[in-house]
Structures are given as C-alpha cells and as structure tokens.
Design a protein that fits this description.
Low-confidence stretches: 17-29, 134-144
Number of helices: 5
Helix content: over 70%
Structural class: mainly alpha
Order of helices and strands: HHHHH
Strand content: under 5%
C-alpha cells in the first residue's frame, strides 16, 4: 500500500479545477499538469514527513544565518589593501554574506510553510475524530489548504537549488582568490582575510551539501510504500 495524498492536499488541487457553477459554465475535465502532480507529491511528503522537514529547515536556517554573521565579521576584519584577483577578499565576503542571508530566509519560509500544512492537517484530524468518521470533510469554519503553501515550497526549493549552485561557483572563485592572495608579495596584506576565507569556504561547502541539497531534496521525495 503506497502513501496517498491527504484530503487537504487533494483539496488544494480541487480548488483550481472546480467549475464556476454560479456563472453557468460547463465543467470541462482538465489535464493534470506537471506542476499539479509535483505539488501533490510535495504535499504528500510534507504530510508524512512534516516533523523531520520542519526540524531540517530550522537547522538549515540557523546554519545559514550563522554563516551570514561570520561573513559580516570576516568582511570587517579583511584588509582593505588586499588586492587579490579575480575578486578581493572583502568583495567575496560581501557577496557570500548576501547569498547566505537569502538561503537563511528561504529556509525560514520553507519551515513556516511546512508548519502551516501540518497545523491544518492536525485540525482536520481532530475534527474527524470528534465526528467519529475518518472520512469527514474539512470543517466549514476552517480555511481549506490552498495551493499557496505548496507553491511556495516549490518556489523556495528552486531558489535554494539556484543559490546552492551560485554558492558552489562562488566558493571556487574564493579558492582562486585565496591562491592569488597566498603569493609572497601579498601574504602580509591578506593574512587575516585569507585565514577567515579558509574556514568560511569549508563551512559553506558543508552547508550546501547538508542544508541546501539534503533538506530541499527531501521535500520532493515521496514516502516509501508502507506494507502492513
């Protein structure tokens, strides 16, 4: 028996495909788009792995925010006279600061969306329990799960994938600048900035692998079949 999408997740799809009966329009069957299928898969993953996804997104957000502060501190400590190529160390720290900040905000937003979906699932489960029927519909006074939460998760995962690629490319640029700053005539003028750059690049690569790739990929992985 495979894991199936919850009623609230399916309600998000039915909202978009509901005909306008009041306007007298005839319902026309719509083909399920790739976006709709992906949205259902993401919703199913969130419903069945919500706690793990919420914890992972929270840890990822804190990690990127810490890296943001480390880049800000390294930027203030880097020597202004350091003229490494292709970019100076201060320029590298500033760009990395912006990208880490964007990743941290995306993780916070993803965590909020996961918690929002979990909250609505819990409300519906409690309502079904009170009615004594596992097939009870969502209560009228509760807002049904719209496609907004799932669309936001999809957009955030795409943004995080793009930012992971940019951070990886920027880390390569940092290695080139570090090798240039390690020349004998530039060692003294780039010492403190180079020392900070080494551990920030190492932490960035770890964050890309564990936070960006793993946490966002888990959102798109459907639960394994459950065999009673």
């Amino acid at each position: 028996v495979t894991a199936t999408p919850s009623k609230l997740v399916m309600a998000a799809e039915q909202q978009e495909q509901r005909p306008d009966a009041e306007a007298g329009k005839v319902a026309v069957p719509k083909k399920t788009s790739a976006l709709s299928r992906r949205r259902v898969l993401v919703g199913t993953a969130v419903v069945h792995k919500g706690k793990r996804l919420g914890v992972m997104q929270g840890i990822s957000a804190v990690t990127f925010i810490i890296l943001t502060f480390l880049c800000a501190n390294a930027y203030t400590e880097a020597e202004r006279e350091c003229a490494s190529s292709p970019v100076t160390l201060r320029e590298w720290f500033m760009a990395a600061l912006v990208m880490h900040c964007i990743c941290g905000l995306c993780c916070f937003l993803a965590m909020y969306m996961v918690l929002s979906v979990m909250h609505k699932e819990i409300v519906m489960a409690r309502s079904s329990s009170r009615k004594g029927s596992s097939n009870a519909e969502a209560p009228d006074d509760e807002e049904p799960l719209s496609a907004c939460e799932l669309n936001t998760l999809l957009v955030v995962s795409i943004v995080m994938a793009v930012m992971a690629l940019l951070l990886f490319a920027w880390t390569i640029v940092g290695f080139v600048s570090l090798s240039d700053a390690d020349r004998p005539e530039m060692k003294d003028s780039c010492k403190k900035g180079a020392d900070n750059l080494i551990y920030i690049m190492a932490l960035t690569l770890i964050a890309i692998t564990c936070c960006s790739c793993c946490s966002m990929t888990d959102v798109h992985i459907t639960p394994k079949p459950v065999i009673p």
